[in-house]
């Protein structure tokens, strides 16, 4: 893959981000008036007028859009309508919490999903395989909020082992982390299983057995690296799903991260903050996919080393 | 010469097939043995059970297959009752195997040198440097050019022949007592095949290895076998010395197999003074970053009803030429005129209209049909895309499907319900459904075993007599080309180096490359 490939990739990334920004901009501004949400119902017409002027809401949509884009290009994401703080500062305050939660979720999904998938493939059609597949189906069929509520009911109200909401200790991370990662773990288990099954059927696995290799050695040294290639792609895609998941999971567990911030600011029509959050999430997803592609091309010799 | 005591003997081996199969046993009560320094060829069509049996010896049976009874004795010990660890220790060290698809049989993830080195790492306590040294020696022994360079290569960077040499080096690494070779040359072209056969014979002579060689080609048997065992539907129907089986086959199945072997028998050329309808002139094509041109100044003309053979090793430019003619690929220079119209500059609808006149049958009938499309739909699709009304297209297809020897009910079935030979018939019917002026057959017989080959070859002749199309027949097998073609073009490194009637070509070929191709034909000395 040469420079041309990466230039094309970069261009596509920029177009994606531009499309996301423009789409949210138009939808947010045509679907409701921030004045109604942010000012009290009995605000005076003068107050309303002043608010509109302050945030340029009195200008045409197109003018607002140009102004926003120009600011964006100079690195200015705007200010919150509510308290006037910079959007970047508000996001920076919440982001570490989400990253912490996301990391826990992702790690447990990896630690459970991949080994479960491998075991299911090796013990194909066994009770273990069926168990893993059931777990996987439940994982991506059960909505996050429902699983979250079930967990709160059981571990917080019934057993009284874990705090139902908030932050502050490692215990607070357990339930939201498990809930958020459950979907990813299920998907990973399923894809790892099918990737492994495919590789195990390949003619080269027969050659490896014919060399007299111990079974586990063949699986770990020969099958797994080949199966890793499709798994990496799924990992990248799931990083995106994880970001989407934070919106719901943070709301259920009262976790002060960017997902909950997004819900709050959408409700209050704090447009600049919503816009900033959406842009950041989109950038994150695009980056995750780019990273997956890069890893993919690095681990597969057929792509890395040309003929 | 009296045979020494057998090293490996299979006694009354039966391997059960899962319930859904069309017969109960893949292998039914088979017994044979092989002595040190002996090459035993096991011959049979695809599905006769020969591969399953060889996998059973290695302990590599796939899921769903199980040994029902019998013994596999190696140096007196029954492999089937041996503990798994002891059996693993024999695999690769004392009994080694070479497979049919050389590139797919190597792990794409690791360099080939490392993959051979692994055998030493697993079975010996040699140092890293010693192992490397030994692998390089092996690579020289199997005549790989520049062993140091090859060591560092990944499988996808090597040719099929080179990968097979690597596989053989791997199999021979620890000088096994028994080498099992499962159709090791079927995927290779004739010249490479001849070299690999030489190599195996030579290794047998030097190391006294016992070889079980599985093949469907009696030409190969002729070249390499000491003894021959013939298998049909899981049964061993005949066994004996090569001379006895080749000269006085007792079983009708053996006789049928022998009769199906293509012979170097040039056919009589039919007089044809019609003007050519397809003229390709000075075609040029280069791949970026390759020194040898894909096509260099290639000119070719084809008359109506004529059959032209295009022969040469893999990589000589045969397929590139065919793809250029049907405009599946582009050329850098030259012209291809079909009935006076140049195909090279054509795009879109005008190209599609011209393409109708040229149709192609591909090498692998398994991947050439959409597994989710019924045969009827696959066959009518082409004519209908060219404006033939549905009713007429369906009628044409019904007629064709019986012409290629299948029941009309085949039209309502899916590709997986057919054998390889049947699928190739379907592919031929699909190509003919457009009533083409030219049929390009790109190695259309290579994926089939000899009996199927003979049948499809006969079918092509019949169809040509009936529909009168011209044929461009691409093959690396001069035997097949000789029996079918009016003219043969020999290609090497992107050029047509010789063009002549088969009889003249074989009798007076002036070109050393053509002579080498003739020499490489298995069983040519007969």
TrEMBL record, chain B:
GO molecular function list: ATP binding; ATP hydrolysis activity
Any single biological process term in GO: peptide transport
Cellular localisation: Cell inner membrane
Cellular component GO terms held in the UniProt record: plasma membrane
SMART domains per record: AAA
Mode of membrane association: Peripheral membrane protein
Entry keyword set: ATP-binding, Cell membrane, Membrane, Nucleotide-binding, Transport
SUPFAM superfamilies given in the database record: P-loop containing nucleoside triphosphate hydrolases (SSF52540)
Keyword Repeat assigned: no
Location of the ABC transporter domain: 8-258, 278-518
Cross-referenced PANTHER family: DIPEPTIDE TRANSPORT ATP-BINDING PROTEIN DPPD, OLIGOPEPTIDE TRANSPORT ATP-BINDING PROTEIN APPD
Family affiliation: Belongs to the ABC transporter superfamily.
Protein name: ABC transporter nucleotide binding/ATPase protein (Peptide)
